[in-house]
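Progress report, Aim 2. The chain analyzed during this reporting quarter is listed below.
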Amino acid sequence: MGKFLKEYLKDFVDDFLWFLINPTYKNLKNVLRYFSISSYKRRKIESIYQLDKDVRETHADDF
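Predicted structure tokens for the chain:
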């Protein structure tokens, strides 16, 4: 739980600071997603899945 919380807070601060630098509707939506833990978890799982998919497609010739 500690690792998740540290990563969650780091991502929140990064997105919040980016929103302060570049205040757009899209960046506001990114910040507001942190108020729903399930949305944050789902987004992290989707990003991990996408990275795995990209790696498989990149190295498809190796297998």
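Residues 2-56 form one domain. The chain has one domain: 2-56. These observations will guide the mutagenesis work planned for the next reporting period.
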